[in-house]
Amino acid sequence: MDISDLIPPIPPLDDAAMRAARDRQQTLTKPLGSLGHLETLSIHLAGITATPRPRFAHKAVVIMSADHGVATESVSAYPQEVTAQMVQNFLRRGAAINVLARMVAARVLIVDIGVASDIPPADGLLNRKIAYGTANMAKGAAMTPDQASQAIRTGIEVVAQEATRGLDMLALGDMGIGNTTAAAAIACALMGAAPADIVGRGTGVGETRLAHKIATVTQTLALHRPASTDALEVLATVGGLEIGGLVGLILGAAARRIPVVVDGFVTTAAAMLAVTLAPQVKPYLIASHRSQEQGHAQILAWLGLPPLFDYAMRLGEGSGAVLAMHTLEAAARLLDEMATFTEAGVSTDL
Amino acid sequence: MDISDLIPPIPPLDDAAMRAARDRQQTLTKPLGSLGHLETLSIHLAGITATPRPRFAHKAVVIMSADHGVATESVSAYPQEVTAQMVQNFLRRGAAINVLARMVAARVLIVDIGVASDIPPADGLLNRKIAYGTANMAKGAAMTPDQASQAIRTGIEVVAQEATRGLDMLALGDMGIGNTTAAAAIACALMGAAPADIVGRGTGVGETRLAHKIATVTQTLALHRPASTDALEVLATVGGLEIGGLVGLILGAAARRIPVVVDGFVTTAAAMLAVTLAPQVKPYLIASHRSQEQGHAQILAWLGLPPLFDYAMRLGEGSGAVLAMHTLEAAARLLDEMATFTEAGVSTDL
Fold first, then answer.
1. Is the Cβ–Cβ distance between A328 and A259 less than 8 Å?
2. Partners of A65 in beta bridges
3. Do A79 and B347 count as a contact with CB atoms less than 8 A apart?
4. B187: three-class secondary structure by DSSP
5. Which residue of A36, A311, A329 is in closest CB contact with B311?
6. Is B35–A86 a contact, with Cβ atoms under 8 angstroms apart?
7. Most C-beta atoms within 10 A of its C-beta, which of A141, B49, B250, B287?
8. Residue of B317, B329, B337, B343 marked active site
9. Could you give the CA distance from residue A252 to residue A244 in angstroms, rounded to a whole number?
10. Closest Cβ–Cβ partner in A34, A74, A103 for B330
11. Helices (H), chain A
12. Are B63 and B175 in contact (CB under 8 A)?
């Protein structure tokens, strides 16, 4: 299959909407530029949505969830069963992402795109399982090229389905024990970086396991040597099903002019793949935070995405992205709701 | 009057509540420490409030508003009338702070502690006017020592009054054309810094006016030479009525175990005065953002308060502080609402 068949048409940012937003910012009751990044974000959001005064009434975080064969290599502080257990925790609304999503009125959708066990049907869970986890990438390809395409297509389809319920801002979330190992391998493959510079502690492994994790990524890359320009090959050999799903979410959202809020290490690796497949998605991506995971700052720089904040978080689930939704909504609401100098009768010059 | 009579008793942070919060963080369904600063903030808030799982249902931003005689020295991009006009804009809910406060359900209280004109009574406005603006500090003391004490006492009383309505988190806001000039003079006096290193563009003045603003602060400090250890003298000679009011808010809130969210340059100068008067208030202060105003990073460092984020804002009004309320509330709600490993049935070790 030709990979380009997968990629939906993605328009450029809308200049007219951005111009209108920029003009309006100059009339609002504040010193020019005094809202800093909130002003530039509001203009950016206008360009993404092609709306001079965008509002965000239908926010969602989609948590792509899958298992990783490489988890058998002892690269995580947690056993593989935790992926399914945390999916249950999301569904019972007990996880960090549930708390943060409630605060910004974002709905939470969990997609089982490759969890290693069966999860009973539940509200908020979408079963789009492609496999019971990937194969161990240290021994062979994580998945087939067909599975990689299918994971991307699944993400695109999830956006289409969610759009029918209303979707105007999307946060990327991930769950999968072992997935920072896959994300690190992807980042190294695409950037040509050394594993020792990119591999981090993930869930919090100690020195010995960190060294083993670096060795595993090094061995995996030496085994597959994926071409840095071939995102599908990188995804299939050293990626993950949830990472493929995230790539699809990005493509699908950009095609529909929906801003995509990137979270931490894993979703940022998915963003690298998406930008490699389709550079035109880049303007639809907004980085939320710089995570504490080693390498995240470098991959954000590679993408050219400045993070909004750095709270030393390293949880995933979309937690940083959903926290940032408050800032993004603030930017948009300031643009929309503030009075102009004329409306307020405030003097503009000495 | 002895200044120490003004200062209410301020307790230390509550160790037992902090220990309980720290212990609970270790049981929640996330890798240990993976929520980064949100975890430390939650423990800090437990210590401030003496509550193991604090909630914040009664948030407020108090905008101390006053005029400055030094505004006649052409130190701002706006005429003095803008102070009163912006107060009207706050009352009509058209300013940035109104939008941001709505988003976090914080009430907005405007205190006229020294606006140069009369403002008609209105909902959300408290008339505690001490004078029709300060005198021009470049020519003589900004206010009398009695007025300085009265401004601080007013802030303490405002907290007492607001506490009767319910108040569990306080954001500091300021409005006053000319007040970054006064704030810079305060910072220079307390830190012994050179005006050229601290004075910034405020509302956005150009090179010529910036040079004049620096010269004005230099001249003012040479005229008064206030002792860096005497906060009341600094406030009276080179301060502002709203800045005195902010000092009182800090003292009053700390005495009641209410977390105080510091905003930008002006409220941070007030925090310097408060800490100079009563070092025991320091643990009750939480810095929200690093503003774009030159010197703000230095005064935050002097205070030892790391900012949560830097969005290149320089508006005042409490805008950064109220934006940060979302993060602070998130920290508290994660601590309170997340499921424990036991509740969720999630494995904790390999």
1. yes
2. A112, A175
3. yes
4. helix
5. A36
6. no
7. B250
8. B317
9. 12
10. A103
11. 15-25, 37-49, 81-91, 96-103, 145-164, 179-191, 195-198, 207-224, 231-238, 241-255, 265-277, 296-303, 319-337, 341-344
12. yes
How many Å apart are CA A256 and CA A47, to the nearest integer? 13
Cross-strand pairs, B262: B287
How far apart (Å, rounded) are the C-alpha atoms in residues B231 and A53?
46
Find the length of chain B. 350
pLDDT per residue as tens digits for the range A74-116: 888 899 999 999 999 999 999 999 999 999 999 999 999 999 9
Note whether B306 contacts A: Cβ–Cβ < 8 A. Answer: no
For tokens 């980085």, name the residue: A287
ipTM of the complex: 0.97
d(CA A159, CA A57): 16
CA angle A318, A322, A324 (to 5 degrees): 120
Closest to B86 (Cβ–Cβ): which among A34, A337, A346?
A346
Token pair belonging to B1:
């009057």
- Interchain pair A204, B38: CB under 8 A: no
Work out how many CB contacts closer than 8 A connect A with B. Answer: 187
Could you tell me if B200 and B179 are in contact, meaning their C-beta atoms sit under 8 angstroms apart? Answer: no
Pair of tokens at residue B159: 């907290």
Neighbour-count burial for B131-157, b at 16+ CB within 10 Å, e otherwise: bebbbbbbeebbbeeebbbbbbbbbbb
| Spatial distance between the Cα atoms of B272 and B231, rounded to a whole number of angstroms | 9
Determine the 3-state secondary structure of A227 from DSSP.
coil
What pTM was computed for the model?
0.97
CB-side neighbour CA atoms (13 Å) of A172: 36
For residue A151, the number of C-alpha atoms closer than 13 Å in the C-beta half-sphere is 35
Compute the distance between CA of residue A7 and CA of residue B105 in angstroms, rounded to an integer.
Answer: 42
pLDDT tens across A222-261, in order?
A: 999 999 999 999 999 999 999 999 999 999 999 999 999 9
Q: Cβ–Cβ contacts within 10 Å for residue A219, how many?
A: 15
- Which residues are bridge partners to B285 per DSSP? B260
